[in-house]
């Protein structure tokens, strides 16, 4: 059945208000301009762009490329007249491999700065599974969006880094970090410092962090137990206890389960066991 799309795009909602008012839609920005731009004139800003997904993936895209399937990429035009790819980098990289594609269709908007471009990048990629949590976090920082920017300022001043790579002080779980920050900023900060002590030269472990931060929010003084935890095996011991709790209770590794795992290590050979009467997030 053929349907005219205009039947669905009338500007008035059933309430009698405009759809913009009825649904509280955001204001639209300026209309983009269609341009055909040489690939050699297009630039990449790595503060919000991910770079090439993989060379093999790019080659496969290039091999089966068709003009109709490339479509138009989204490009920012800066005040100096330079062009910066905001969305469509992988298609552009594939096109550049071929040799018989030297120009590409672009929808060009006037950039108000790097933060503006980063926000457009996030909008373009909203809901796309292929964009990692770490990359979304870094792009939000570039765009000046909170709480990511606030978190990142504190992390950098205290020797931490949100990264997809491993290494001392590296955090690969920005979603859980943001959640913990939202629950209680100070508890989150304390938990990061404690978890770094426990993990040593390794990256910050997500389950250990979740367990420690949950206990702190539930009034357990974890700082005073750090040396005991380390002496009992630190990271490996806590991971083992969290796994045991999850299996025993038949639950996923939730905040409470992680907290119980850390608490189990703290209570090892302790005459007066610490406990939480009523767990809160």
Q: Could you please describe the fold and organization of this structure?
A:
This protein has 281 residues and is of the alpha/beta class. Helix content is 46%, strand content 11%. 28% of the residues are buried. The protein is built from 13 helices and 7 strands. The strands form 2 sheets. Strands 1-5-3-4-2 form a 5-stranded mixed β-sheet. A two-stranded parallel ribbon has the order 6-7. Helix 2 packs across helix 4 (89-98), helix 6 packs across helix 7 (148-157) and helix 8 (174-183) packs across helix 9 (185-199). The model has no long low-confidence stretch (mean pLDDT 90). It starts with 18 loop residues before the first helix and ends in a 15-residue tail after the last helix.
Calculate Rg over CA atoms: 25 Å
Strand sequence of the main sheet, in spatial order?
A: 1-5-3-4-2
Low confidence ranges: none
- Terminal CA distance reads 51 Å
- Number of distinct beta strands: 7
In which range does the helix fraction lie?
40-55%
Number of helices: 13
Approximate shape: elongated
The SS-based structural class is alpha/beta
How would you characterize the largest beta sheet?
5 strands, mixed
Mean pLDDT: 90
Roughly what fraction of the amino acids lie in strands? 5-15%
Order of helices and strands: HEEHHEEHEHHHEEHHHHHH
């Amino acid at each position: 059945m053929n349907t005219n799309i205009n039947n669905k795009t009338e500007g008035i909602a059933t309430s009698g208000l405009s759809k913009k008012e009825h649904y509280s839609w955001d204001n639209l920005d300026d209309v983009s301009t269609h341009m055909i731009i040489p690939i050699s004139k297009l630039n990449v800003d790595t503060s919000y762009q991910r770079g090439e997904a993989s060379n093999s993936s790019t080659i496969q895209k290039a091999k089966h490329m068709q003009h109709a399937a490339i479509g138009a990429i989204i490009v920012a035009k800066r005040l100096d007249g330079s062009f910066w790819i905001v969305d469509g980098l992988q298609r552009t990289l594939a096109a550049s491999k071929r040799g018989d594609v030297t120009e590409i269709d672009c929808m060009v908007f006037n950039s108000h700065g790097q933060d503006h471009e980063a926000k457009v990048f996030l909008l373009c990629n909203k809901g796309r599974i292929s964009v990692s949590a770490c990359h979304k976090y870094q792009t939000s920082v570039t765009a000046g969006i909170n709480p990511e920017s606030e978190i990142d300022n504190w992390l950098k001043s205290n020797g931490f880094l949100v990264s997809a790579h491993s290494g001392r002080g590296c955090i690969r779980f920005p979603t859980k970090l943001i959640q913990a920050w939202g629950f209680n900023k100070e508890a989150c900060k304390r938990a990061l410092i404690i978890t770094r002590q426990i993990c040593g030269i390794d990256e910050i472990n997500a389950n250990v962090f979740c367990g420690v931060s949950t206990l702190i929010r539930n009034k357990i003084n974890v700082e005073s137990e750090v040396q005991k935890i380390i002496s009992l095996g630190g990271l490996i011991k806590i991971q083992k206890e969290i796994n045991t709790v999850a299996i025993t209770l038949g639950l996923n590794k939730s905040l409470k389960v992680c907290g119980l795992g850390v608490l189990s290590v703290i209570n090892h050979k302790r005459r007066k066991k610490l406990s939480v009467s009523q767990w809160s997030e």
